[in-house]
Write a structure and sequence with these properties.
binds iron/sulfur cluster; 4-stranded mixed β-sheet; binds FE2/S2 (inorganic) cluster; binds flavin mononucleotide; 24 helices
Length: 565
C-alpha cells in the first residue's frame, strides 16, 4: 500500500473528529457565553454542571466552538479538581457527588470516621470524594452533597440530604444593595467620584491606617495602589475570593454578610488606581455566595450608586477547585482561561498581569476594610492593636475551642487571648498544646509560644507566619506529627507540578514523614531545596509543617512509631 493512501483528506483536522450532535449539545449548554478563550473555565463549568463530567466528544466540540486545539481544552479541563474529563468508553461517574473535607480542622473533628461511614452506607446513588478544605472549618466536619454543604456533618444528616433531592447551597441572608445604600453605603465612592475627596487624600488615609494585604503576604495597600496607578493604561483589577487556605473562612464571612462593603472597596480601589475593569475570582465551593454576588452585582449595575459615573466592567469568575489559583498570578492565568500555574516574577502582576496589563490584585478582606477606614479615619483603625501592632482583622478560628468561628480582633492579639476572649476558652477536657497561626502554610507553634503577638512579621523568628490569619488550635489529644502528614498530603495534591522542587519535594516529603522514624537531615535538605528553588509560595511554604515538627515537637518523634496516615 502506498504511503499517500494514509494521508488525511484535505480539510480534515488533526485529533478527534467533532460529532455534529456533540457540537449542537455544546452550543445549547454554553448559550449566552461569548466564545472566547478567556471564558474557557466558564464553558467547562456549563458542561460539567449539566453532564456531571466532561465527555470526550463534548470537549472536542468545545475546542471547535472556541477555535482552540483539543489538547489546550483537555489540559485545562484536566488541571482543575472540579472538572472530570472522561475518555471515550469510560463509565460516567454517579450522578451525585458527596465531597467530604479531610483537611486538618475536619480531621480533628472526625472526618475519617465520616468518610468510612458514608462509604459503607451510601449506595450507587452517590459517590464519596475526599476533598481539601471547603471553607466551613468552624462547623467541622463538613460534607457537601452536590452543592449543598452539611456542617457539621453526621452520617445520618448526609444521607438525609442525599435522599431529599435538594443539592443546592442556600442563598446567604446578606445585607442587600438597597440596605447598604440606605445605611450610608457607597458614600466614600461618591465623595471620590464627585471630586469631593481627592485620590491623594484616600491614599494618605490608607497609608496612615497601616492596612496591609490580608490575603497572606501583607503588602501595604497604599503602596500597591500607587505602583499600579503609575503603570500605563489600560489597567485592570482582580479580587481574590479564592480562599483555599485550609482553616480560612473569613472572606466568606465578609461577603455573606455585607458584600457591598467589599464591592465599594473594590470600586474605590479601581477608581484610585485607574482600573478599567474588575474581575472577582470566587472559589467554586461557595455556590450560595456566587448566586448572592450575581444578584447583588445585577442590582449594582442596574442602578449605579453615583449618578453620572459609569461603573467599570465587573466580571464574576468561578474557580474550579484548585488551591494554587489563590496565588495571584495563577489566579490571573485561570481568569485568562488557562491552567492555574503561577508565573515567574519579575515582572510582577502590578506591571504585567491580567491579559498582559498592569493589575491591582487584592484579597476580599483587604477591600472590605477600605470604606470603613475612609469613613471612620485612619486613626480609628490604627488605634486598635496590642503589643505595638496596629489595626483590626478577622481571624478564622477552628479546632479545639468552645466557640470556633470568625472573630474580629486587634492585630497583635495572642492566641491565648484569642481563645479566652473570643472563643469561650478551650473545649472541656482540652488544654492548648499547639496552634497553626496561618492555616496549612504558616507553620505550627507550641503552647509555650501562645503569648506571641499574632501579626505580620512577628512569628518569623519561630519559623511561622500569620498568612490569612487562619488559627487552628490543637490540644494534648492531638498529634502534631499527624497534622504535618495531613498538611503535606494537601500540598502534594495541590502542587501545580510546574517546578520540580515542589512537585517532587512535596511527594517525597509526604512519603518520608509517613514513616515512624523521620530522617531529619534528609528532610531539612529537602525543605531547603523546596524553599530556595520553588517558583511560588506553595512550594516555598510547604516544608513549614515538617520544619515545625523538627523544631518544636521533636518529642513526638522520639516515642513509638506513629501510625501511618
Ligand atoms: C499558594 C498560595 C495561595 C494563595 N491563596 C490566596 C487566597 O486564597 N486568597 C488571597 O486573597 N490570597 C491568596 N494568596 C496570596 C495572593 O497571591 C496575593 O498575595 C493576594 O491575593 C494579594 O492581595 P492582598 O494584598 O489584598 O493580600 C495565596 C498565595 C499563595 C502563594
Ligand atoms: S511551587 Fe509548586 S505550586 Fe508553585 S509553581 Fe512550583 S510546582 Fe506550582
Ligand atoms: S471545611 Fe474542613 S477544614 Fe475547612
Amino acid at each position: 500500500m502506498h504511503a499517500s493512501e494514509f494521508r488525511r483528506p484535505v480539510g480534515w483536522g488533526k485529533g478527534r473528529q467533532v460529532d455534529p450532535a456533540a457540537l449542537q449539545r455544546v452550543r445549547a449548554l454554553v448559550d449566552g457565553l461569548p466564545p472566547r478563550r478567556d471564558l474557557l473555565v466558564e464553558h467547562l463549568h456549563r458542561i460539567q454542571d449539566a453532564e456531571g463530567c466532561l465527555p470526550a466528544p463534548l470537549l472536542a466540540a468545545l475546542a471547535e466552538w472556541l477555535g482552540l486545539a483539543q489538547t489546550e481544552v483537555y489540559e485545562v479541563a484536566s488541571f482543575y479538581h472540579h472538572f472530570e474529563p472522561l475518555r471515550e468508553g469510560e463509565a460516567r461517574p454517579a450522578a451525585l457527588t458527596v465531597r467530604v473535607c479531610d483537611s486538618l480542622p475536619c480531621r480533628l473533628n472526625g472526618a475519617e470516621a465520616l468518610l468510612t461511614a458514608l462509604a459503607q452506607r451510601l449506595g450507587r446513588e452517590a459517590r464519596v470524594q475526599r476533598v481539601p478544605c471547603v471553607g466551613r472549618c468552624a462547623e467541622a466536619p463538613v460534607a457537601v452533597v452536590g452543592r449543598r454543604p452539611i456542617a457539621p456533618a453526621a452520617p445520618d444528616a448526609v444521607l438525609d440530604a442525599v435522599a431529599s433531592g435538594d443539592f443546592e447551597c442556600a442563598l446567604p441572608a446578606a445585607q442587600d444593595y438597597a440596605g447598604y445604600r440606605s445605611a450610608g453605603g457607597y458614600r466614600q465612592l461618591a465623595l471620590l467620584l464627585e471630586g469631593r475627596r481627592s485620590r491623594e487624600s484616600i491614599l494618605d488615609e490608607l497609608e496612615a491606617s497601616a492596612l496591609r494585604g490580608l490575603g497572606g503576604a501583607g503588602f501595604p495597600i497604599g503602596r500597591k495602589w500607587r505602583i499600579v496607578a503609575q503603570q500605563a493604561a489600560p489597567r485592570l483589577m482582580v479580587v481574590n475570593a479564592d480562599e483555599g487556605e485550609p482553616g480560612t473562612f473569613k472572606d466568606r464571612h465578609c461577603l455573606e454578610r455585607t458584600p457591598h462593603r467589599m464591592l465599594e472597596g473594590m470600586l474605590i480601589a479601581a477608581a484610585v488606581a485607574g482600573c478599567e475593569a474588575c474581575y472577582i475570582y470566587l472559589r467554586d465551593e461557595y455556590a450560595g455566595l456566587r448566586a448572592l454576588l450575581g444578584r447583588e452585582l445585577a442590582a449594582l449595575r442596574a442602578d449605579p450608586p453615583v449618578p453620572g459615573h459609569a461603573l467599570p466592567e465587573i466580571h464574576l469568575r468561578r474557580g474550579a477547585g484548585a488551591y494554587v489559583c489563590g496565588e495571584e498570578s495563577a489566579l490571573i492565568e485561570s481568569v485568562e482561561g488557562k491552567r492555574g500555574m503561577p508565573r515567574l516574577r519579575p515582572p510582577y502582576v502590578a506591571e504585567v498581569g491580567l491579559f498582559g496589563r498592569p493589575t491591582l490584585a487584592h484579597n476580599v478582606e483587604t477591600l472590605h476594610w477600605v470604606p470603613e477606614i475612609l469613613e471612620r479615619g485612619a486613626a480609628w483603625f490604627a488605634g486598635h492593636g496590642r503589643r505595638g501592632r496596629r489595626g483590626l482583622r478577622w481571624f478564622s478560628v477552628s479546632g479545639r475551642v468552645r466557640d470556633p468561628g470568625v472573630k474580629l480582633a486587634p492585630a497583635g492579639i495572642s492566641v491565648r487571648e484569642l481563645i479566652d476572649e473570643h472563643c469561650g476558652g478551650m473545649l472541656p477536657g482540652h488544654d492548648l498544646y499547639a496552634y497553626l497561626p496561618g492555616g496549612a502554610s504558616g507553620g505550627i507553634l507550641p503552647a509555650s509560644l501562645a503569648d506571641e503577638p499574632l501579626d505580620f512579621d512577628t512569628l518569623q523568628p519561630h519559623g511561622a507566619f500569620i498568612g490569612s490569619a487562619a488559627v487552628i488550635v490543637l490540644s494534648q489529644h492531638d498529634s502534631v506529627v499527624d497534622a504535618a502528614r495531613n498538611l503535606m498530603a494537601f500540598f502534594r495534591d495541590e502542587s501545580c507540578g510546574q517546578c520540580t522542587p515542589c512537585r517532587v519535594g512535596t511527594a517525597k516529603a509526604a512519603r518520608e514523614i509517613a514513616q515512624g522514624q523521620w530522617n531529619a537531615g534528609l528532610l531539612r535538605e529537602l525543605s531547603a531545596a523546596m524553599m530556595d528553588a520553588s517558583i511560588c509560595g506553595l512550594g516555598q511554604a510547604a516544608p513549614n509543617p515538617v520544619l515545625s515538627v523538627l523544631r518544636h515537637f521533636a518529642h513526638e518523634l522520639a516515642g513509638p512509631p506513629q501510625a501511618q496516615r
